[in-house]
Amino acid sequence: MMEKQPVLQTKGITKYFHDPVKFQALNDISIDAYKGEFLTIMGKSGCGKSTLLYLLSTMDTDYEGEITIDSVNVTGMKQNQLAGIRNEKIGFVFQFHYLLPEFSCLKNVMIPALRLGNYSRQEIEARAFNKLEILGLKDQALKPASKLSGGQQQRVAIARALINDPKLIMGDEPTGNLDSKNTQIVFDIFKQLTVEFGQTIIAVTHDTDFAKASDRTIEMLDGKILSHGR
Amino acid sequence: MKYKHNISSEISTSYVVTSKKLTLIAALGVTIGLAIFVFMNSMMKGFDRISTEAIFKTVSHIRLYKDDETSMPLPLSEKENTARLIVNPKIVPENNVLVNPESLIKLLKAQDNVTVVSPQTNVSVFYNSGKSQISGLSSGINVEEADRMFNIKSTMVEGELNDLKNVQNGILLGVGIATKMNVKTGDNISIISSKNVVKVMKVVGLFRTNNSNTDKSKSYINTSVAQQLLLQSSTYITDINVNVKDFDNAKLYADKFSRITGYKAEDWKAANETLMAASRMRKIIITVISTSILFVAGFGIYNILNMTISQKINDIAILKAMGFRGHDVIRIFVQQALVIGMIGSVMGLALATILVNVLKHVYIGGDIGYFPIRFEPSIYLSGFIFGFIITFFAGYIPARKAANVDPVSIFRK
């Protein structure tokens, strides 16, 4: 096995919620995620797994400890810098697709790339087509996002997460709203991304089968790591 | 290499286009607000212009004259055991005459921005014709200069102004006097001055200033005749009227002339303080009303932006998750506000033009005739800029709120 290369590391993450009462949501969490790894986080409702994911995603900055993404310590960075990191290095897939209903699927996929501005518009359009093709949605590309089925919308959302070729793809219950057939499709796509493109997936899930099939599962309970799954 | 794709503006445009009805309603608010703002201010400007014009038919920008002086009380004696003499301050009995007017005129003419200098000798007189006798004021003038200053020619209803120059004892009467005494051009009347000098004058023309007080009492005569009526020499001048290029700043020049000549120089605003106060009050009222209407339009935009933002809160959250910065989000909504504002402004200026054109053809009557309103580019410009600023803030305030949306709190719902 080739040497493991960490893409994301946390050191002693602790987080409190202050409202309505002070409550410790995460307690001294230290985890690593490696290049090309399909990592799932499991645990009961309220164990802090989503909270952890939002900290890892840099959207929530209210914590103690340190987070390193792609060898860069992101703890204490300014909001605008973090937005830049998210734009370039992280793709998101949520339980709900959050597509912009006014735009076509293609345009939805293009938005993060247009924001990043690494390519010309024509190139971005070609890349977005390519991503939709990988996800089997080439025929739907020009339809408005609101006209697609739930499974298709979720795949468009995945294509959007992939457009900037991020190092990390984070999913918060990415299959939570999908039937078993679509869940399998999403799983296969994730698997393919880690194997073929060396991208790292971190997904929070309730689905035991989904977790079992992944490379590694971190189990959490009451804000602590129960097992690193190694 | 980095490309700059204006994705914020594309998203903004899609919001404007997909909610056409809301956009139009908010834009209509701006339309009405801006139209009324421009319309009311144009009305005020037209009104101000016509009242200023009326003032300048009889009043010069600056009038230089010798003011009455009050005697100073005697200084108190320092010595003890002296009785104090108490004297009431009184006006020093002196002639209201400007000393060496020729050099004063020369000096004033040499000043910057002075357009006309016209010396004048005013005489209080009685106009007599048969049994009727009317008291009034006769101004001894130099015809050419006085015409340039007061535009007397434009007020003439009968006769020729130039005849006053040619006929030594000619007189130009206000129409009010002429009607009362039943005289017309070519008739003779006699006038008596306060020094009891009687002169028979030939009426060479009649004028109408539309200020009935002036028309019923004022007349113009040659300076030399005025000096004879007062039993004075040919250097006797009571007033020097001065017009300057920039009459709104007449006070500055008046102060300067007062300093360099030593005589009292009064600007037209000080001489017509009541009119000026009324005009200022009018200005305040109209500004307050028209600005509040524009503000209400701003609130319309603010409301619609707030509505859009709460509808699109999921979009905002995902955009922020995907790496949109605060100012990218602000740009989306400020641009939406500005597009609404622009549509509204263009329609508003068009509506204002229609209103101005309609009012222009409304007959008021009296001295004024048709309503003195016209297309005022400066008001259009200031309305447009003001509308733009209000629109900007009406968009910016809710947009800043949108920029501060915490995406995590949306995703966790």
Find the CATH superfamily of chain A.
P-loop containing nucleotide triphosphate hydrolases
Supply the helix-strand structural class of chain B. alpha+beta
Order of helices and strands of chain B: HHEHEEHHEHEHEEHEHEHEHHHHEEHH
Secondary-structure element string of chain A: EEEEHEEHEHHHEHEHEE
Helical content of chain B stands at: 40-55%
Low-confidence stretches of chain B: none
Question: What is the level 1 CATH name of chain A?
Answer: Alpha Beta
**What does the largest sheet of chain A look like?**
6 strands, mixed
**Compute the gyration radius of chain B: what is it?**
33 Å
The tally of beta strands of chain B, per DSSP, is: 12
Task: Quote the average pLDDT of chain A.
Answer: 89
Provide structural commentary.
The complex is a heterodimer of chains A (230) and B (413). In chain A, strand 10 and strand 11 (224-227) form a beta hairpin. With 230 residues, chain A is α/β, with parallel strands linked by helices. In chain A, strands 7-8-9-4-10-11 form a six-stranded mixed sheet. Chain A is globular and about 50 Å long. Chain A starts with 5 loop residues before the first strand and ends with a strand. Chain A is 36% helix and 27% strand. Chain A contains seven helices and eleven strands. Chain A has one domain: 3-Layer(aba) Sandwich (Rossmann fold), CATH 3.40.50. Chain B has 413 residues and is of the alpha+beta class. Chain B folds into two domains: 7-55 and 276-411, no CATH class; 62-74 and 92-267, no CATH class. In chain B, strands 2-3-8-5-7-6 form a six-stranded mixed beta barrel, surrounded by four helices. In chain B, a hairpin with a 3-residue loop joins strand 11 (363-365) and strand 12 (369-370). In chain B, helix 2 packs antiparallel against helix 12 and helix 12 packs parallel to helix 15 (377-403). Chain B starts with 6 loop residues before the first helix and ends with a helix.
